[in-house]
């Protein structure tokens, strides 16, 4: 869509440097970029999108997901397990996947995210059974239309060498690095407004070697791409790091080149004050995954302490096998509530949680062109209908958003509609659900 005018929004949450919120405002979009914000803007031939009674926000940004897990929601044997037991239960199921499973689970997960107002998502695919490749996820994401930051994950240390995953799911490290280099050359687009950026993401300290962590960091910096992994997720994770490496996860990361503004770590539930200071000094980002952390009993991440120290914090839904869903608005609400449980009712406001879920995500993913509604920013915008029953009686639509509409009304990515009137434009939702159920049955039946 070349020219669009969002007209008369009840409130526009800009997330600009002044965090302005504008009432009765219009937003003009040309060729995928926001060019003008104001009241009573002339249509000038634009297609007009009425936004009376609507809250308009930047699109939400998801910084940690395992989209392949969308076909393994609520697996009974994994329901009540801690992280390591949960993984050991699911590894054999994931080993039965193939390219079609990866593609459909990616489309399903991204479609679900889109309906929750998400315009940009990362993905962490770290196992490649039966011929599956990251290319399968990349092709599927292009069909849905979200801005996509897939990462080439990896596991190289199997059970026989003291790692957690079964040997059948690990790869030789030279092959991992060679494929990472291939993917960057084939797909990574570093340009402003890019729809696709590839990162490198060895899975975790308990599934890859120190050498692979170091070599991945060297390759990423040589190619100018970002680094991602899991870190300090729970007490088991800390104990493993101390036993295997003789140090805490933050020290391990720093020693191997895994700090800096081109790095973001998932979870970080158990960071101590020294590690928080390290991340703040180095510009290292954190993907906060509150629902998954609750589901796995991992604990409450020190988000307030991280934010106060200056750490870049973003939101992540994590995989649906540890979350059961991919609703980014619910994730932001859970982040707010958990900090209040831990630190008091004034620990995290709804507006700060929304900032983490929008601008915070763009900052962690290295996207200064996204995350705000301001002239020159990419037109990634969510329009929320606040006129329904769930929002009636509200005095503050911004605060109510985290508990109000459960589905975005309209979603624009690069100025193009992905959701219109609460319906996916780029996918046949019914057919996608049928495909997902069919493939899930193949996993259940083995």
Instruction: Report strand order across the widest sheet.
Output: 3-2-7-16-17-18-19
Count of alpha/pi helices: 14
Low-pLDDT runs of 5+ residues are: none
**What general form does the structure show?**
globular
User: What is the total number of structural domains?
Assistant: 2
Report the count of strand segments: 19
- What Rg, in angstroms, do the CA atoms define? 21 Å
Judging by the overall fold, what is the CATH architecture of the largest domain? Alpha-Beta Barrel
Would you mind describing this structure in some detail?
By secondary structure, the protein is an alpha/beta fold. The protein has 2 domains: 3-58 and 372-424, Urease, subunit C, domain 1; 60-364, Metal-dependent hydrolases (TIM Barrel, Alpha-Beta Barrel), CATH 3.20.20. 36% of the residues lie in helices and 20% in strands. The protein is built from 14 helices and 19 strands. The protein has helices spanning 83-94, 99-115, 134-144, 173-187, 210-223, 235-245, 249-255, 273-282, 290-295, 303-309, 328-343, 350-364, 397-400, 429-445; strands spanning 3-9, 11-13, 21-22, 25-30, 33-38, 47-50, 54-58, 60-62, 118-125, 147-154, 199-202, 227-231, 263-267, 285-288, 312-315, 381-385, 410-413, 416-420, 423-424. The termini are far apart.
